[in-house]
Amino acid sequence: MRKKTLLGSLLLLLFAAAPVYSASAAANHPAPFTSQVGIWYTVWWDSEPPYDSHWTDWTRYRPELGDYNSGDEATIRAHMEWMKQAGIDFVILDDTNGHGNDGGNIAGNIDKIFEVVEAMPEGTAPKLALAIGYGQWGLNDVRAHQDEADLVYDRYAQSPVYYQWKGKPLLIDYTTPSWFYRWDDDRFSVRWATGKVSEGEPVAPDTGLWGWVFDQEQNNGEIVGVNPGWDTAHLGRGTTPIPRENGEYYSEMWQEALKSNPEAVVIASFNDFAEETAIEAAEPRNAAAPAYTDYYGDAAPDWYQQLTEGYAGLKNGYREGFYYKEADQSKLYRYENGRLQAASELPHGAPVIELPKGFMNGKVVETGHPGHGKDADKWVALDLFDDWLRQFKGLSQTWSFSTRLENGDETPGLSNGDVFDYIQQSETELMYSQAGEDADRPSGRLGFKLHPAWNGANGWLNADVQVDLPQEKHLYLTYIPGKVNTASDGITLTILVNGQQVAFDWIEGEAGWKDKRAVDLSAYAGQSVTIRFQIGWGQEALGDAATAAYDSFLIGEPRIVTKWK
């Protein structure tokens, strides 16, 4: 999604030898943008001991309103009034850390937010919704999670200011992907969120992910998420920050949202300064945190609030006094007196709202939604990842797993540290960081991540899938092996059909994707068979010298096809 930077392209205007703008441009009729806009809101800020330490210990920025209490009436009113006039339709109150935690402050602050918003005049505040999840990700207890949902329904969802989505109260379930299909509640329109969208998107529900860190585009028409950046390194976490790039990252995400015009755009977040996703006006507490600045390097504490208002407000047209330009175009405009007027220099203290090409003339090309980002392939008879995903969703039971240790003991299921899961971005990032300069680095490749047994004893991971092969002249099992760690001394993959070995693969050398493999299954056409993927630690190739250390392995795009090459 990287393009020539907005600042770089606009700086060219400052040194142009002649004017490049027309006298005026179109009136207030941009391309249609009709999405509902929501924003996450942190509810556990406190201005009194002991929980004022959330500010002092966890944050590098101080909001312009000071270190406030999330339950302070004046603060709530100021936030809600600004969000409404900026174009925000609903606020997602972040109750994902345990409703009764912080000595009851979280619960009390949420109660106060509802009380204040209910008392505000109609049309002056956004609606409210809740995000829960501590019962799942924190306690791994479905009963505790249901108790949270019951509390939301009984205590908040009946309020006239509670936000309705698809005819029901909206409830966000922040959890791990393993819970996506294990719980629901028909009283709500339940939508899902997880830590990073890239980690959950391959197995996400069709309604997409409504949070938390929007680090990857989603291919669905309901939700597009945007955030200005993300950084938890200052909390001592071993995470890779998403730099703000002075608003360019945020702007690019908004442009993708404008192109697709989804049912909802969700911003993470208004005021999570701990994870530095906040758009609220703020200044650094110390020199270690970069200040929000304008194009001239001058302080602009409300830079991200202005960007948010400029984009979210497009539902009602251009904003008086705001600056706009289209991507890859040189002309810059300021909206004044109901018209876009040509501007000759970059604004001081205000951002330029960069729009998709054609947006000003209502001709923007919408983003397609191909579904999991895979191209249609007429030669694919069966996609084994899709087959496994059906089981992950609880719709079938074609896959089974077992572990066979080096001493010959075999047990059903996964044991001794072996792994069978879906490929996540963290695995490919690790692999790419060790791969050579010319290595293939595709994004979003679907498939499986695996590891042989190692804890207590080495052993083989067996993944069996029952499939009905079509009656075709030619059938091939194709896949792309990936070696995650260069430090691994090698991984073996043995493929069996009905217990008979049909292929053996020895994966060694540098980390990275290897050449696509094809196993001829034509002899089994028209039969119901069991295909086994048997993952080993290298004993077949290296004997007793083999180790299971660093033996993470990827099987990309596992498919049964009628033609390849």
Automatic annotation (TrEMBL):
Q: Write one Gene Ontology MF term.
A: alpha-mannosidase activity
Q: What is its main location?
A: Golgi
Q: Which region is the signal sequence?
A: 1-25
What membrane topology does this protein have? Single-pass type II membrane protein
Question: What are the alphabetically sorted keywords of the record?
Answer: Golgi apparatus, Hydrolase, Membrane, Signal, Signal-anchor, Transmembrane, Transmembrane helix
Record's Pfam families? Glyco_hydro_99
Q: Does the keyword Signal apply?
A: yes
Q: Which cell locations does it reside in?
A: Golgi apparatus membrane
What name is this protein filed under?
Uncharacterized protein
The species is Cohnella zeiphila
